[in-house]
Design a protein that fits this description.
about 190 residues, mainly alpha, about 0% strand, elongated, YabQ, membrane, transmembrane helix, transmembrane, Spore cortex biosynthesis protein YabQ
Length: about 190
C-alpha cells in the first residue's frame, strides 16, 4: 500500500473520529432529554456503538479495501480528540438551538393548523348544530301548538270517544272469551 493511500486513510479515519464524536454528542443530547429506563438506554448505547463501528468499517472498505492497521486507530483518536477539544461545545449549542427551533416550528405549525383548519370546522359544526336545534325547537313548538289546538277542538267529543272505547273493549273481551270457550269445548268433544 502506498504512502498516499495510507495518508488518505489516516485523514479519512480522522474525519470518522470527528464524526463519531459528533454522533456521540448528538446521541447524548437526545437521550439526555428523554426519560428512558436504564435497560433501554443500555440497548441504545450498544446499538449506537455497533452502528458507529459498522459505518467506520464500511468507510474503511471504501478507502483502502478494509485493511486495518495501527495508524487507522491513531487517526480516529486524533479526529475525536480534535473534535472534543475544538468543536464539541459549539456543536452541542448548535444542536440545542436546532432542537429549540424545531420545537418552536412544530408548535407554530400546530397553532396555524388549529387557527386555519380546526377552529373553522368547529365553528361551522357549532353553527349547524345551533341551526338544527333552533329548527327542532321551532317545529316542536308548532306541533305542540297544533296538538293543543286539536285537543281543544276535540274536547267535546272526548267523553263520547271514551264511552265508545269502553263499549268496544267490552264487546271484544266478550268475543275472545266466547271464542276460547267454544274452542275448548270442541277439544273436549274430540
Amino acid at each position: 500500500m502506498s504512502i498516499a493511500v495510507q495518508f488518505q486513510t489516516v485523514l479519512v479515519m480522522s474525519a470518522c473520529g470527528a464524526l463519531m464524536g459528533m454522533g456521540y454528542d448528538t446521541y447524548h443530547v437526545f437521550t439526555g432529554r428523554s426519560r428512558l429506563p436504564a435497560w433501554l438506554l443500555f440497548v441504545f448505547d450498544v446499538l449506537f456503538w455497533l452502528g458507529s463501528m459498522g459505518l467506520v468499517f464500511f468507510i474503511l472498505v471504501k478507502v483502502n479495501d478494509g485493511i486495518v492497521r495501527f495508524p487507522i486507530f491513531i487517526g480516529m483518536l486524533f479526529g475525536a480528540w480534535v473534535y472534543f477539544v475544538i468543536g464539541s461545545k459549539k456543536y452541542i449549542q448548535f444542536l440545542r438551538a436546532v432542537i429549540k427551533f424545531c420545537k418552536w416550528l412544530y408548535r407554530t405549525i400546530l397553532r396555524v393548523i388549529d387557527l386555519l383548519v380546526i377552529r373553522p370546522i368547529l365553528f361551522v359544526y357549532r353553527l349547524v348544530f345551533m341551526l338544527l336545534a333552533f329548527l327542532y325547537a321551532a317545529v316542536m313548538t308548532v306541533f305542540g301548538f297544533g296538538w293543543k289546538l286539536a285537543r281543544f277542538a276535540a274536547s267535546p267529543f272526548a267523553r263520547w270517544g271514551r264511552h265508545l272505547g269502553k263499549k268496544m273493549y267490552r264487546k271484544s273481551t266478550g268475543f275472545w272469551t266466547n271464542w276460547k270457550n267454544w274452542f275448548h269445548s270442541k277439544k273436549k268433544q274430540e
